[in-house]
Fold this sequence. Notes:
By secondary structure, the chain is mainly β. The chain has no helices and 10 strands. The strands form 3 sheets. Strands 4-5-6-7 form a 4-stranded antiparallel sheet, with no helix packed on it. It has a 3-stranded antiparallel sheet with strand order 1-2-3, with no helix packed on it. It is globular. It starts with a strand and ends with a strand. This is Exo-alpha-sialidase.
Amino acid sequence: MTGANGLAIQDKNILVASGNYNDLQKADSAFVYSNDAGRSWKLPATMPSGYRSSVCFIGKGKAITCGITGIDMSEDGGTNWKKISNEGFNVCAYNQNENAVYFAGNNGRLGKLQL
């Protein structure tokens, strides 16, 4: 129940949401990123808050990741993440025209974060 779950690409920046579905709070393997088109990979200095299943860019170097245990945001290309919500979702998608992130979760739950 471990491995990559979500992928976002912006120029040479690649974000990979991952983790362990059987250990939702474990944050030491919840994310990796590359800023050189995948030639090298790094762990964030500040990890997202546990298992994450989806990730999307929301602007230049800014991203959102979500999972069952909440939502995190990065403003530095994935180097550092800050939890912004305890609401759990399975997938996120950025709508540039509305400058909003839409979320979908278990039992038909939907969410929207206006940026």
